[in-house]
């Protein structure tokens, strides 16, 4: 049970069932302009909806775009991209990893290259700099946590995870590719779709 992440040990106390409060990922509003206007990014929108505290650790770097990132962003392979690696915490428990790639020609010299991008997050800063977002595309699949992911998320290697790939688009081009790994047992993905 410990290897599956179902129980946790507290030194000098014993073994306890790990709390399983789900993190609701509400597709309806988390990417909306209204949430950005309220000063919330996608993860903080989830926290606001679920009444839990969000915390994010950010690591940034600039690197050449590899094949997948270049194809997704419709840029040349090797073109500079800003990489924003994040570990995301719900009530101080790691629940999600996210790595965003943004073309450097639109981030250079902007707040997007700061660790703290301010209220509304990266998407609000993109729109403020003239990159009006028109749609997002997400693909979701199930995977197994690799050892480095398991270490960051405090789960067992091989534990089930959601692998979500989100691409943010303006009318002219894709402006962000975001590769997300979320703990399967912690997340509930909720979609509300029109019946038209």
CATH topology: Chorismate lyase
For the largest beta-sheet, the strand count, sense and barrel status come to: 6 strands, antiparallel
Estimate nothing, just give the exact number of structural domains.
Answer: 1
Output mean pLDDT.
90
CATH top-level class: Alpha Beta
Q: Return the CATH architecture.
A: 3-Layer(aba) Sandwich
Structure summary, number of beta strands: 10
Structural class: alpha+beta
**Straight-line N-to-C gap:** 45 Å
Taken as a percent bin, the fraction of beta residues is 35-45%
Shape: globular
* Order of H and E elements: EEEHHEHEEHHEHEEE
Which ranges are low-confidence, i.e. pLDDT below 50, for 5 or more consecutive residues?
none
Strand order within the widest beta sheet:
4-5-6-9-8-7
CATH superfamily: Chorismate lyase-like
Helix content: 10-25%
Measured on Cα atoms, how large is the radius of gyration?
A: 18 Å
**Helical segment count:** 6
Any chance you could write out the topology, listing elements then pairs?
Blueprint (H helix, E strand, L loop, with lengths): L6 E4 L3 E4 L5 E4 L6 H5 L4 H9 L3 E11 L2 H7 L6 E11 L2 E11 H4 L13 H8 L4 E12 L2 H7 L6 E11 L3 E10 L3 E4 L6
Parallel strand pairs: 3-10
Antiparallel strand pairs: 1-2, 4-5, 5-6, 6-9, 7-8, 8-9
